[in-house]
Amino acid sequence: MKNMDRIVIYTSDIMLLTDKSESYARKEIQILKKALNKEKHQKVTIKEYCRYYDFCIEDVLDVLSKRNL
Fold first, then answer.
1. What is the four-CA torsion angle of 4, 37, 55, 59, rounded to 10 degrees?
2. What share of the chain is helix, strand, coil (3-state, %, to 5)?
């Protein structure tokens, strides 16, 4: 597994992980920010995403790192 050089999760990452649309992925980030009491300018991390949705972080990082090859 290739190491990830970032900690922030992006709309395109969620689209890849869930096979859903861009609008779905944007909504997921909005839901997360609200649940985590984040302000508009604050980012959501991959770790927060995994914790919230109970995803295995190693699996998520594996999928994301394969896309970045």
1. 0
2. 60, 5, 40
